[in-house]
Amino acid sequence: MHQQTQKIPPLEIGLLLLLGILWGMPYALTKIALPTIPPITQVTARVILAAAVLWFVVLITGRTLPKQPGIAARLFVQGILGCAIPYTLIAFGQQSVDSSLASILNSTAPLLLCLIGLASPRQAPLTTGQLIGVALGLGGVVMIAGAGAFAGLGKGAVGQSAILLATLSSAIGALHARRFVNIAPEVVAAGTLTSAGLVLTPLCFLVEAPLDISPSVAALAALAANAVVATALGFVVYFRLIRTVGSVGTTTVGYLRPAIGVLIGCSLIGESMTWPIGCGLVAILVSVAAVNGTTVPQLREAIVAGFRRPPSRSPIIAGST
Fold first, then answer.
1. 3 in a domain, yes or no?
2. Does residue 4 belong to any structural domain of this protein?
3. Which helix (H) or strand (E) holds 33?
């Protein structure tokens, strides 16, 4: 397992926070589109559109395609592990699992990575600080979701198992993604999403009837935002972070999703901030700092810098290997 030996630069922590925002968006966008676009059709269209956008970015930026033997097969595996399986299983699982419990189950990726590391002698062990951070972050998610979310544990076991399997697949995908650290992240993201689209398209026609749907304007707008912003940009940031902060550090984004959702609700919708939620937010920020070897003041500086940094200066798209 990737072990942090150096402090993570504030920019990378800022990108981790950005990824938390980007990957927290699909829940609301999917809900907007679901009334007129069924789940697998929506996921399939999302990854295909995102892949098309990224291949356009690869073309106009002149990125060189990798020529290593077996790279297409590895991208195909990454598309299945990191996209096709998790997206499909979560879409299925959330039909019978409350969102609060789903957020807890879907936030266990760092914990699963720890278990994988313990079971594999070839993986370097996590530091004590990282182990504490992983546990603290999961506790923070539980505080935000509420202990009452566990009341539904065991009910709808099939859906809960699907979400846990999706999370396990994402965790294994994060480990597998380290094979692409020497390739431009937008190229890896485009190849991953293309591979997922190749798997999901026949499944979509087998399970649903995508040619017979009549999506609303709001559903199409939500799907476009989900594909271009949350998925295309999100996967570019994801593969960059796999390179710079490692697989465990990147999966802590699962802790940030509910935290960012709460912050948005409190700041824009006027929802109340309770003591358990406040403690959960603090626990999650400390967790992200501990796992990534960053002090809390550095994390605070990264948050401030991230809000001040003009998006056009971000090296996410311009960066190369």
1. no
2. no
3. helix 26-33
